[in-house]
Every structure is written in C-alpha cells, then in structure tokens.
Amino acid sequence: MFHTTASFVGHGRASAPSHRAVVFVDPVQSIAERHVDAIESAFPWTTVTRVETVSALFESYCDIVALIVVHPSLLGEVAKMAREIGDRHPLALITVLDGGKDALPCSILSSRFIRGVLPLGGKSDLWLSVVGLMLRGGEYFPRDLLDSHRREAETVEPEAPTRPARNGTPPALAHLTARELEVLELVSRGLQNKTIANSLNLSEYTVKIHVHNVISKLRTHNRTEAAAYYRDSTSAFAVQA
After folding, report:
1. What is the spatial distance between Cα 75 and Cα 82, in angstroms, rounded to a whole number?
2. CB within 8 A of 119, min separation 6: which ones?
3. Cβ count near 92 (within 10 Å)
4. Residue 195: which residues within 8 A CB-CB, separation 6 or more?
C-alpha cells in the first residue's frame, strides 16, 4: 500500500528536527517496502514517504524534504510545477527514478531542475550509495546515459581541443583538456553545474558532459572525489615548484 499522506513517518518513528525526508512520487508502486526499510536502515536520520501524485508534494511534512524522486511518467507535470516545488521545498534535490524498464528521456540531461537519476536495479549497496550522495547534495547520472548522448553535445558545442600541459599545470592533470581543467577548477570551489555553465558561457548539459569526462579520466567515482584530486594535485605541485 502507498502512504498517501505526506506526514507519514516510517516505522512509527518520532520525527525530529534533524531528520530529513525522502519523498518518492511514484504512481505505479515501483518502490517496495524493502526499499523503504533499506533507506531508513542505512540513513536512520531520514524518513521515507511514498505518494502517488505531484500535488501531494504541497502537503505538510514532518521533516525537511531533502530528496524528491519522481517516476519518469510524471516528468512533464513536475516540469510545469518545478518553481512551485522549489519554493515549497527549497532544500530538496529533485531526481528521477530509473526502474530499468524503459529508457529515460534525453531531456533530463538538459533539465534545469532534474539533478540526478536514482537507478533502482542492481545491488542494494550500489543504489543506496547513490541515495547517500544525493542526500548530501551530490548529483548522479548513470555513465551509459551520459555516454549515449555525448556525441550530440560534442556536435552542438565542440569540446575545446586538447592542449599540452602548460607551465603551472600539475602533471597529474595534464591529460585533461583546457576546458575540462576550467570546469574542474570551478567544481573544486563547490560550484554547481548551473553556476559553472553561466560562468563559462556553456549549456548546463555540456558542463555535465565535461564533469563526466573529468571523473572518467581521473578514475574517480564522483565530482567530490574529482575536486579533492584536483586540490591535492595542485597543492603538491605548488609545493614542488
């Protein structure tokens, strides 16, 4: 059964100000009780709510909503109400649920409000790690989704050509392009893709592709690790210089 009241607190646990809510907007019941149990067990400071309609996001919640995961079938409706949702839940990260049954639409990569994809299939520790990343404000997009659209981005907005390492570029970062270095430097400052896109006069989608390429080339797992690698490399290089 779905919990259709937004004030639902999993397992009868009392709400606390420090708790954060995870809301699944899922009309087809993709989220089972075992998924709820897994999230609340891995992140005991969260409460999980399952609702069927986008309008339920405007009800009262016991905890501050930190993560909203919507079913792909509701993306159009969420897009129309994105501003209102953002006003109601300013701290919430809006993501898309990927149940693996149907391919996700290309539009989510260029969306101004979708900040990631939660893949529900596979091992529980893997998708739970993605939930943890999102609860900390991190973005996650599956590599195959980014790879399948990389050529389109490169055609529309060609990547800056690869240049040899200049003086002042750490050898550990020399295999990155000039544009990738620019993006990585801004990522290391904690800037989000939208801000980076505005700063470099790029589309947000292109920035996502650059971030993906950087993570892949540095063999890190996410943007946080890539930023730490950049800071460590530049600090070590500065000491040697």
Report:
1. 10
2. 98, 100, 126, 127, 130, 142
3. 20
4. 186
Query: Edge-to-edge strand order for the sheet containing 20-25?
Result: 46-51, 20-25, 64-70, 93-98, 117-119
Place of tokens 């210089």: 241
The C-alpha atoms of residue 57 and residue 194 are separated, in whole angstroms, by 24
Helix (H) / strand (E) element for 97: namely strand 93-98
Mean predicted lDDT score pLDDT of the chain: 79
- Residue 234: CA atoms inside 13 Å, Cβ hemisphere, count? 12
Region of 12 (left: φ > 0; alpha: ψ -120 to 50; beta: rest) is left
The H-or-E segment that residue 96 falls in is strand 93-98
Over residues 135-155, the pLDDT tens digits come to 988 888 887 777 665 655 555
What are the tens digits of pLDDT across the range 63-104? Answer: 899 999 999 889 889 988 988 998 899 889 999 998 766 667
- Where does 140-222 have alpha helices with state H? 143-156, 178-188, 193-200, 204-218
**H helix and E strand count, the chain:** 9, 5
Tell me which residue has tokens 């159009």.
Answer: 76
**Helix/strand/coil for 22:** strand
Query: What's the Cα-to-Cα distance from 195 to each of 64, 67, 102, rounded to whole Å?
Result: 25, 21, 31
